[in-house]
Amino acid sequence: MASQEWLEKDFYAVLGVPQDASKKDIEKAYRKLAREWHPDHNPAADAEERFKGISEAYSVLHDDKSRGEYDQIQLMKSGRGGFGGAHAAPGGINLEDLFGNAGGGSGGFSDLFGGLFGGGSGTRRRSGAVRGNDLRTNVTLDFADAVKGSTTELRMRAPGECETCHGSGAKPGTSPTTCPRCNGRGLVTENQGAFSFAQPCPECEGTGTVVTDPCPDCGGTGATTKDRVITVRVPAGIGDGQTIRLAGRGAPGERGGPAGDLLVRVTVRSHPLFARDGDNVTVRLPVSFPEAALGAKVKVPTLDGPVTLKVPEGTPTGRVLRVKGRGVPGKGDLLVTVDVDVPTALTAEAREALEKYAAAAPAADRSKLEELTGQ
Ligand SMILES: [Zn+2]
Ligand SMILES: [Zn+2]
């Protein structure tokens, strides 16, 4: 039995024993260290990590067979092995081939076996762990809720951790039992010539335990599909078509794997008046010609109630005026585009006044048109 992890770890150093330590010494060292570093008693931040390492080292070294294999791997690694080359293994198999990537620590082999050797008390076997699927759903938000952020409740039918067995798959009051095929090891060993290969146990899928009395609500899978209400916090300024990722709210993992994520695609309802330009909110403001020409104070609606905007004297149509802080909170403004209204129906009095104005006003400047086109 072999693992890439074994290449990189010094289990003797972890237990503080020499390489020729007796079984008894290994056991003594383990008991002392396990007591010292048990996370229930040791408040140090790394106590759990240390305790796991100690358990792992012990689980390998206290067993003659696995200790022998570990020693062999260390020998091959250091090139002191009896097989000829630094990385040569029996039959000419290269260790890099065997382990995918001997130096890097990633690759199919180590993924398959990573964390499998937890073994001893206090650690959890997670060899067959599979991350749960990501789930997808949609939500439609009002314009203002998207700008300002909101909390919304989503109703969806989706798989989640079974509430009866809390994901263990075992009937309440019972617990999964040690797998009879691998004796809880999570691995079965297959001999092929000079080599023995370990594979995740097919009976328990590498978990080391089997459910003999399955939970009646989930049939032993640890997951049930139910109508769920999920609270989604929508960040201020989210845009139409964007996706919110809720980590760990997707389908539950299998065999101790982490849950997937929930991806919520956002649709934002359009608003009859307001629109978005990034973090800014935009609005068109109709003003009369006299207001634009003479200047005026005009009431402008915002998502948080009206503000009074000063339209400066001589403001042309299409000019954008800015109301600070009335866009996405802390990020955007309200951009007000001035829209000079041309009256379509005039009273006799208004017409007379306009004609008077036309006679007194300067003509529109069309010199540019002539200059550029010669027409
Ligand atoms: Zn269940
Ligand atoms: Zn098994």
Automatic annotation (TrEMBL):
UniProt keyword terms in alphabetical order: Chaperone, Cytoplasm, DNA replication, Metal-binding, Repeat, Stress response, Zinc, Zinc-finger
Domain named CR-type: residues: 149-227
Cited PROSITE patterns: DNAJ_1 (PS00636), DNAJ_2 (PS50076), ZF_CR (PS51188)
UniProt name for this protein: Chaperone protein DnaJ
Annotated Zn(2+) 1 binding sites: C162, C165, C215, C218
Transmembrane annotation, as ranges: none
Positions annotated as CXXCXGXG motif repeat: 162-169, 179-186, 201-208, 215-222
Binding-site list for Zn(2+) 2: C179, C182, C201, C204
Top-level taxon in the UniProt lineage: Bacteria
Cofactor: Zn(2+)
Function: Participates actively in the response to hyperosmotic and heat shock by preventing the aggregation of stress-denatured proteins and by disaggregating proteins, also in an autonomous, DnaK-independent fashion. Unfolded proteins bind initially to DnaJ; upon interaction with the DnaJ-bound protein, DnaK hydrolyzes its bound ATP, resulting in the formation of a stable complex. GrpE releases ADP from DnaK; ATP binding to DnaK triggers the release of the substrate protein, thus completing the reaction cycle.
A single GO BP: DNA replication
Domain J, residue spans: 10-74
HAMAP family: DnaJ
Subcellular location: Cytoplasm
Family designation: Belongs to the DnaJ family.
Record text about domains: The J domain is necessary and sufficient to stimulate DnaK ATPase activity. Zinc center 1 plays an important role in the autonomous, DnaK-independent chaperone activity of DnaJ. Zinc center 2 is essential for interaction with DnaK and for DnaJ activity.
SUPFAM superfamilies reported in the protein's UniProt record: Chaperone J-domain, DnaJ/Hsp40 cysteine-rich domain, HSP40/DnaJ peptide-binding domain
